[in-house]
Amino acid sequence: MLRILIITICACNVGTQRGTRPNGLISYSIPETRPLKKALGYYEDTYLNFTELSSKHGYHTEQHTVTTEDGYVLTVFRILSTCGIETGYPVLLMHGIFDTSDVWIVAGKQRGLGYLLAQNCYDVWTPNHRGNKYSRRHIKLNPDKDVKFWNYSFDEHGNFDLPAVIDYILAVTRRQKINYIGHSQGTTDFLAMASLRPKYNDKIQVSILLAPVAWMSNIVSPIPKLLSHVTQQLKIFLDSAGYSELLASHQLTHLILEYLCQVSSDDLCSATLAATTGYKSGIPGKTLAIAFGHLLSGSSSKSIAHFGQLIQSKRFQRYDEGSTGNILRYGRTTAPEYNVSRITAPVVLITGRNDWLSSLKDIATLTSKLPNLLENFVVPEPGWSHHNHVWGKLAPGLVFLKIFEYLRWLN
Ligand SMILES: *[C@@H]1O[C@H](CO)[C@@H](O)[C@H](O)[C@H]1NC(C)=O
Ligand SMILES: *[C@@H]1O[C@H](CO)[C@@H](O)[C@H](O)[C@H]1NC(C)=O
Ligand SMILES: *[C@@H]1O[C@H](CO)[C@@H](O)[C@H](O)[C@H]1NC(C)=O
After folding, report:
1. Structural domain count of the chain
2. What is the pLDDT of residues 348-381, one digit of tens each?
3. pLDDT digit string, tens, across residues 197-247
4. What is the rounded distance in angstroms from the CA atom of residue 185 to the CA atom of residue 277?
5. Cross-strand partners of 64
6. 21 belongs to a structural domain
7. Quick one: which of 87, 101, 136, 253 could link to 121 by a disulfide (CB 3.0–4.6 Å)?
């Protein structure tokens, strides 16, 4: 079973390879396929990028570039308040793994949280973490040539990407604080930042975490659980084979999933989501079809390996580099835990009863340790899963209302 899985993952990536580079990284990209998608009758929103989508739906956006301390060049989009004035502090929306800032708008005008915030007069900022399709740049390293570019996980998103983006937003807007909203790995990024760099807690008015991921020992999803036994070996294998970048938008797996979702979003696409996150229902077929044109926008083998370590170690800890690597990196033989008792910023958790990646048992561990937890809001729908928070038909009434309550109450 495992072997088949690994072969499938690799085979899908190999499909588009162009040849091995001298130092081991494989360059594989698919030419622009937009005319083909148009001809096949894809929903247009499937292949439009962030700027095109938001201007099509009548929103003004800006594109900003932020360089991190360690040289990664990130794209940060901003959706301007439609009110002419801005209410409260700026809102930072942080996407999850394999995702981009598109996640906040693909559900469209009525249900895209990015749009709804702008309509309610908020100044909305949506960064892209290092390595995804909008942030595949570095001042020195070449993502197509240098394996080192892919040496990151959510630890670096939290330690470097978020602080750089937050300082940038505060400088541009001349405000003292931001509101933080994260989804999935976007919540892990926050927890890593706020425990590794506690002075950033003072720059957060409130942090609202949708489908939070920290402790993972009670994960229900069988695929990550199964893979977690071998992620370390898998990482070594993938890195040495030149596949440190995984499931990117220019790779074949993305194109196949995107296609399947167009022809049969309710069956094949739902089944993919069901197998990985426990998804049951509640996301309109058209939204799923469009969303899968944007999902699978790339991550690193190390990101996957880090989550594998969380599952196996039953701890919320920094990346285990092996005892020698740990001494060099942390000054000790084992990987240190994230000290979440340092997270003094107010935190709201929004969780689901049927989320296979973010189980309520693991959430209980997190809630028992957070010193300034305002609420753990469990969405009162039995089938609520990982992506219902961002794309669900009922998300505006169940999740976004909660978000707006906190933003208004605190401002
Ligand atoms: C979005 O697409 C437009 C039109 O193709 C292009 O000019 C722009 O550079 C793209 N933006 C990003 C961030 O990829
Ligand atoms: C990756 O980065 C970490 C942290 O900076 C470092 O300790 C480690 O040695 C690096 N690994 C490689 C293979 O470059
Ligand atoms: C974790 O942080 C708290 C609060 O700053 C501190 O009192 C405690 O000693 C830290 N624990 C460890 C293991 O570093």
Report:
1. 1
2. 999 999 999 999 999 999 999 999 999 999 999 9
3. 999 999 999 999 999 999 999 988 888 888 888 888 888 888 887 778 877
4. 13
5. 76
6. no
7. 87
